[in-house]
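In this section we walk through a basic example: taking a raw amino acid sequence and producing a predicted 3D structure, encoded as discrete structure tokens. The instruction is simple. Fold the sequence below.
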Amino acid sequence: VLATLRTLYGDHPLLWQAGAAFLGISFAVALPFAGTLRRRSLAARGAGAAATSSLEEGLANVLAVQGLGAESHARRRFDRASWGSFRSHRRLVGLGMLIFLAALVPALWVAARVFAYVAGLVIEGELSRGDFLLLFTYYLMLAFSCVELGSLWLRLQESAAGLERVFFLIDLPSETD
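The resulting token sequence is shown next.
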């Protein structure tokens, strides 16, 4: 899309440079947040595993828990683990929203600048309304591709956190009994 923009509208460098800016914004936002996202994803997975483990342990030993009258203790333990999982997941979602806003604000600024520039060219008669629609389509394609590229890197970071947990479990020493 960038090559097409440069070929078709090379006499208006702002048009293809703004398209390249979308790509730059995508990487500039995704790369610095990757480590934080991986750590928070790892924490969220660990907290979720703790909540699941607490529930599973309580259900597996339900007769012993009921026989000893420890239902309230088991419930409190599960509540703590469940709320810890929820807080951890909420922090992960909050980071995702921050990343989205960090990318959206500069991208909207670039898009508004290009929109004003192209609208001015249409008003002056240098470009037709068809060119305006064509450019709009190109920028939508480019914006969606850049969003997908940036979010792919972030999804890989979340998956890497899960993979870390899998390798941690695989590397645990085996039981001898």
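Looking at the output, two observations stand out. The chain has a mean pLDDT of 83. The helical segments are 2-8, 13-60, 62-67, 71-124, 129-171. In the next section we compare this with other chains.
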